[in-house]
Write a structure and sequence with these properties.
single chain, 219 residues, alpha+beta, six-stranded antiparallel β-sheet, four-stranded antiparallel β-sheet, 26% strand
Length: 219
């Protein structure tokens, strides 16, 4: 394992303040330790990394970033932070946390104890489309999922066969209820293809660039 720099730090996500520093083990870049910093009401989850420009095409680092966030999410409600949030020192993180405190608090109220679940529904290949059935499927799916979930966002319909591409914010206690509903719809519309993904960190429901001036979804 390479030694980490002493001052510069990289932020993966944010959790509620804990009584003691938490170590998530050596799961950061280059096998560095991932741990929490005390910043009053909220704690950024960080590792000690060189201050540099993080390239958006670096798949290895992006995968590490995402895996750290998923690991933290197992036990804590989180605000995910976009890949690439490096800081020269702890003080600059603390300043950013103070400046963003209002937005962080608002985001945490929204996502506390929730995860993101995604649904894509594809129309069957090489068959004549039954428009009435198509609309019934879309309407029934939308209505049934919205009864279970807190919020939803419609994402890009990147294929002409894609009937629905929606992500939902779901209480952790309702994940199984949501999954059961997916199975019921799959049985009813067996010639349609359902692609169910998650649980994910709630990337599409918070400003994940909350420690910078940028905004946008990321996964």
């Amino acid at each position: 394992m390479k030694l980490a720099p002493e001052n510069s730090k990289y932020v993966y996500c944010i959790i509620k303040s804990q009584e003691e520093t938490i170590s998530f083990g050596n799961i950061g870049f280059q096998g560095h330790e991932v741990y929490t910093l005390d910043c009053m009401d909220f704690c950024p989850v960080v590792s000690d990394e060189p201050f540099k420009k993080y390239e958006i095409d670096n798949e290895e680092e992006i995968n590490i970033h995402q895996n750290v966030v998923k690991e933290v999410m197992k036990d804590y409600s989180i605000i995910p932070v976009a890949y690439g949030m490096g800081f020269k020192n702890k003080k600059l993180i603390q300043v950013s946390m103070r400046v963003g405190k209002k937005a962080i608090k608002k985001s945490f109220t929204l996502v506390d104890n929730k995860v993101e679940l995604g649904i894509k529904i594809f129309l069957p290949k090489d068959t004549e489309i039954d428009n009435e059935k198509r609309e019934h499927c879309k309407t029934e799916s939308t209505e049934n999922f919205e009864k279970i979930t807190s919020q939803s966002k419609n994402l890009n319909l990147f294929s002409p066969r894609l009937l629905m591409n929606t992500t939902y914010l779901v209480d952790k206690e309702k994940i199984q209820i949501f999954s059961d509903e997916v199975e019921k719809l799959k049985l009813k519309y067996s010639d349609y293809k359902f692609r169910y993904s998650g649980p994910w960190p709630p990337y599409n429901f918070v400003d994940i660039h909350i420690l910078s001036n940028k905004k946008g979804g990321f996964r």
